[in-house]
Design a protein that fits this description.
The chain is α/β, with parallel strands linked by helices and 141 residues long. It contains three helices and eight strands, in the order βαββαββαβββ. The chain has two domains: 63 residues, Signal recognition particle alu RNA binding heterodimer, srp9/1; 48 residues, no CATH class.
Length: 141
């Protein structure tokens, strides 16, 4: 018996703003917006629900992300859980510039210099890492 990772929920002061940011980062779309209090995003659905459920049962799938309104802002502490993202059609520097233009900010969580990844924060301060590029010619097996 096993389970599948279907979605992650992130507390947010402005769920729609954060959902829009992450849609821009991941190429996701908004599935549901409950008056800005809860917003769910995920991969652009190309299959009917029953086919998506069958795919989820058969193996790992890209998870959806839900942003839920909470009254408090993020505390000043390093996240215990964060996303690692990899560009798929550009080099790391080009993707870094795109993410900064979307509203990300470079941040320091004590990672030190000379790392192959870049630590960023989304518009509400949640850290995530920009790792190596998976674009053709940038990453070879």
């Amino acid at each position: 018996m096993t389970s599948r990772f279907e979605w992650v929920t992130i507390d947010s002061v402005e769920p729609r703003r954060l959902a829009d940011f992450w849609c821009g980062v991941l190429g996701y779309v908004v599935y549901e917006d409950k008056n800005g209090d809860a917003v769910e995003i995920g991969p652009d659905p190309e299959e009917p629900d029953e086919q998506r459920l069958a795919a989820l049962r058969s193996g790992p799938a890209a998870p959806n992300i839900s942003f839920v309104r909470v009254p408090e802002t993020k505390t000043i502490a390093k996240n215990r859980l964060h996303f690692e993202i990899c560009p798929i059609d550009s080099d790391q520097q080009t993707e870094l510039e795109r993410l900064l233009a979307l509203g990300a900010a470079k941040t320091d969580v004590g990672q030190g210099d000379g790392r192959s990844w870049v630590v960023l924060a989304d518009p509400e301060g949640n850290e995530f890492c920009l790792a190596r590029s998976l674009a053709p010619g940038e990453f070879d097996l």
